[in-house]
Amino acid sequence: MSPPPVGDLAGRCHDLLGRVGATVATAESLTGGLVAAALTSRAGSSKVFRGGVVAYSVDLKAALLGVPDEVLERHGPVHPATAQAMAVGARDRLGADYGLATTGVAGPEAHGEQPVGTVDVCCVGPGAPVVRRYQLSGDRDTIRGSAVAAALEMLADTVVRDNARS
After folding, report:
1. To 5 degrees, how large is the angle CA 63–CA 81–CA 115?
2. Rounded-to-integer distance, Cα 111 and Cα 79, Å
3. Cα–Cα distance, 35 to 88 (Å, whole number)
4. Is the link from the previous residue into 115 a cis peptide, with omega within 30 of 0?
């Protein structure tokens, strides 16, 4: 079963964030702003979307998002720890309730030891961080599109989890 279209996922995130009065900020490498574009495609998105940083180069991950040098030196730009640091940096530096980050290898070539299709996504909010590594397949556009869908699904699931009250 394939995931819902990105527009549907972004709409669900928009609705969930609006319902709980929360905001999100993005930190993107692999997706190059596609997550932010999806989240801002709907009228009224300024109520839930604070902003985003596209930090494609390693030095900008540190300078703009505050990813610690030791994380980048030890793990490199494509790693769950890097994705988590990016998400925290986006949330904290852009003043949002949630930070959502993507990093990975879209191809056409591997990046160091990381094969094409390796994608790390993290969402941080008031609850415990959620970070996942995916091994996606397809061409560059397919991998990037799948990463956007994975990130939006993670955001929606995290907002629901953080706001579940019985």
Report:
1. 100
2. 11
3. 16
4. no
Residue 76 lies in a domain: yes
| Paired sense of beta strands 130-135 and 118-124, if any | antiparallel
Domain span holding position 42? 6-162
What's the number of domains the chain is made of?
1
Interval 106-137: pLDDT, tens: 999 998 889 999 999 999 999 999 999 999 99
The pTM score is 0.95
Distance, in Å, from the CA atom of 132 to the CA atom of 149, rounded to the nearest integer, reads: 13
Ramachandran region, residue 124 (left: φ > 0; alpha: ψ -120 to 50; beta: rest): beta
Three-state secondary structure along 81-96?
HHHHHHHHHHHHHHCC
Which CATH number do you get for residue 97? Answer: 3.90.950.20
Residue pair 82/27 in contact (Cβ under 8 Å)? The answer is no
CA angle 7, 121, 138 (to 5 degrees): 70
Alpha-carbon span 137 to 118, nearest angstrom: 9
